[in-house]
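hi!! sorry for the late reply, been swamped w classes. u asked for the two structures so here they r. pasted raw, havent cleaned anything up. first the sequence of the first protein and right below it the tokens
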Amino acid sequence: MTATGPIHVVGGGLAGSEAAWQLAERGHDVVLHEMRPMRGTAAHRTEKLGELVCSNTFKSTESTNAHGLLKAEMRLLGSLILECADESRVPGGTALAVDREIFSQHVHDRIHAHPRITVSRDEVSDIPSPGIIATGPLTSDALATAIRARLGVESLAFYDAIAPVVSIDSINPDIAFRASRWGKETMESAGEEGAYLNCPFTRDEYEAFLDALTTADQFTAHEFDAVPYFEGCMPVEETARRGRESLRFGPMKPIGLRDPRTGNKPWAVAQLRMEDRAGRMWNLVGFQTRLRIPEQQRVFRMIPALADAEFLRFGSIHRNSYINAPATLTPHLSLRDAPTTLFAGQITGVEGYTESTATGILAGINLSRMLSGEDPIVPPPTTMLGALYRYLREADPRHFQPMNANFGLLDDLVGASREVLRDKLVKRQHFAARGLVDLAAWRDAVGATPLATR
């Protein structure tokens, strides 16, 4: 099919600006809708496109870091946002840190200068078709209402209570044991709670953990990020402050659990639930938190079996509008009944500047393909971009939470030697080398480069 008029992209942040650019570079006329300054948000301070709100860093540029690998893949696909970031970079070691004002001005100017892009300052309350919705965590009430009406009332979350996720390779198997309460569930026949890895505490270990947890340094939320604490969103440290036994009668209750190796009943238990189907990522159940990242590392490594934990995602609690993607969207993140209405950015369930921008690239590529009569495509899961999309497609809808780029998402290294798999840095070097080769091959095979650079 072909568009009978311009394509509408809603949201002038990172994902929306990137999506509009990718479409325009492929020969499409685009209207990019941004409601600022007609209607402001509690987070933004200017009317510029691509304004950065919470940080000035896109994180690591090293390909042995998950965010660095994702950026290297995005460069292969011609990312506008990364070009603007390079032009406004400030010293930040291996991190891609930018001058916020210069960066947003570059994005603003590049978008406005493109002959195929028109910027419309208005609030969109209807779902565009064809089009891309990239409105981020501060989606307006009117559009959020339209999305909820289209997808179902339970499809759009407004507050994000995220627990940390750790790598299976970093969990001590000599301490953790697999079991569900009362032995009722197995990996093959998991119920609502599912099967768990359990990290047992002695009384002394629990008391020491409690002291560290209740005195740790917390993140102070921005005004726009304030979250009303209700039971489903209660930080684990706040629960602990209610009383010394509150966690033992809450997320760390040991009732119905015995270590099958010893028959002992633990004083308390931290449970981990499988986050991905391959079992590489495990979620600390009930450990949503506002602790700062260094404090999460320090305190949660006091959990028996997690002394050497590799954190693939840190916990957080913040305001965030995001869709339950695995329950409601297609593999290329469109409406199931309207494949040319796509979503991009944080509203899809990815976390972070780089991840949001990357989905904007692929949304632009796929909408262009479909309007030209081609099928939508997603990179292979050996790439970081493809692995993110796989997570959004295959995560358990009952427990879906946003995800950032991490090596736990990638396909295993088939045929790698024990020496490679044992050395974390070498393993990541192999992941990165494979990912970039596969992304470049995929790009060339499907013609995913913009017309302007072919």
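now the second protein. again sequence first, tokens right under
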Amino acid sequence: MAFPLEASSITHGIQLAVAPVFLLTAVSGMIGAVAGRLARIIDRARLVEDRARGSTDADWLARSQRELQQLRVRGMLANGCIALLTSCAFLIGVTIIVLFVGETGAAGGIQTGGWAVGSFLLGVVCFLAALLCFLAETVLATRLLDFRVHPPGGGHSA
């Protein structure tokens, strides 16, 4: 079955489909940033595990266990963030396809407006949830920091 495609409808379809592409750019940048954070979390966990294996100091082992538990939570948040961002990208891709197919008339009379709105809004919801995961992970990361200064020799700084 051949679909009659006009140049003006194809042009308009492309124009409609380009707007969500900007969100895809933001999503891909965030995936890169979160993937980098996840790699650093994994590297830190490996370092803490290796140091804990070589230690017999009970205090050090307890601190290591606490840090590893916090790193696990951060890793789960980063993984959740990446899953939400991937879902967002998929849904925005669906939106682009539906907008283009609906505008060019290739949908054969199927109402595509509801699908486009639904997939776009679900994509935005996934993006917002990913931002919340990212915020939670960064808050946890800064809570891990020990802002007290411990100079060599056990003395106190002025």
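hope this helps!! also noticed smth abt the second:
The chain has one domain: 8-143.
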